[in-house]
Task: structure prediction
Amino acid sequence: MKTIKSLVVSSLTFLIAFGPGAFAQVVPTPSLPGEVSGGGGFSTPTTISSGPATPVMSSVPEKLPIGSRAALASFAKSQIRKLTASVSSPSLVNYERTKTYGEVLYTPRPDGGVDIDGVVLTFFQITLSFETVNLKDRITLNESLNSGDGSQLFTGSVSLQIEFINGSWRIANVPSVELSLAGRVPIPFPNASWAKLLLKNSEGNIVGEEPIEIGGSKGGGSNGSILFPSYRAGALATLEIGTYQSGVSETFAYDVAGDGQSVPSVRVDGVFSVPSIHREIITLRTDGYVNVTFGREFSTAPLIQWKATRTLEQVYFAALSPDGEQAHTMWMYSSTTKSWQAYELPEGRPLILKVFPGLYDIIFEFKRFGQDTFGFSEGKG
Result:
C-alpha cells in the first residue's frame, strides 16, 4: 500500500495591513515584530429616565448606536479587545508542529480609545503554519476582531492558493481580506430579557416583527446584551427591549432610522365607554406625564383635562395619532393664568416642562390628524 505523505507549507507570519481599497489586507512576511498596543473603549451611555413615566433604571441608554452601519461600526470598533486568525481546508493535517489558529489580546490606549492602526499592528503577533495532503485545495484564511468575551464584531475571510515558487511551495497572489460587521453585533443593555424589531413601511405603519436574540440566551457570550442584526442598522423600524429586575418588568423603545434615539412610551389613561361628553373630553389622572395614543374611534384630537395637585419639576408631554403620527404642537390652558400657551414638541421624544398646581386643558395638534376640524394654530380664545 502506498503511504500518503503530507506536504509541508513553510510557516508564514500573516500581517494584517489596512490599506486602500480594502478594510484589511493579508501579506506574507518573514519577520515578527515585538509586542504592541493600540487603542479603544466604550463610554457608558448618558443616564436618563426612560419614557414619560417615573424614572426606573438609571443605566438605561438614551441612544443606541443603530442609526446607521457607520454608527454601529464605530461602536463595534470601540469594543475590540481580541484578534483571531485561522486557516482551514479539508486537506489540512493537524500536527502539533502546526498552528492553524491564533489569537492575541488588544490593549486600548490609555485614554480608552481604540486606534485602528494599533489594531493592525497587533495582528503582527499572530503566526500561523499548516500542512496539507492536497496541494490543489484552496486554503481559507479567516480573521475576526472580537470583544473581550469573544463575541465577533468584524469578520472576514479569503481563499488562498498554494503554488510552487522558486523551488518551494508557497502562497502567492494573496487577495485583500475585507472585514465587515458581524451578522449580529452585541450591544450592552442592562437586564435585557427580550427584544424585537417592529418593521415599518414608508408611511410609518408596522408591517412585521423580527425577534432579536439576547446575549447568552443560547450559550454564547455577551450577557446583558442585545445581539443586533447589522443589516438592520438604519432601517425603518422601532427596536423594543424588555427588561426584568427584582420582579419589575419595563419596556424601552428606540427609533432605528431616527439615529437610534429613545422613543417615549405612550400611555392612555382615561375612560372612553362613558357618557358622550367623554368622547370629546378625556380626563387624565396621571402624575408626571401626559402621554396619549388616540384610538381609531377618534377622527380628531379630543380635549384633554389634566390636574396637577402639586408643583412638578418634570412632566413629560407627547401624543400619537391612530396612525402613529407624532403631535408637533401642544396648546395648554391654565385655570390659574386664564390663558393659552403653545409649545413645540421635539421630534422623537417628549416635551419636558415644570408645572405648577392647577387645572389644565390640553390640545395636541398634528400635521394630518384632525387638522380640518381644529384650527387652533390661528390662536386660542
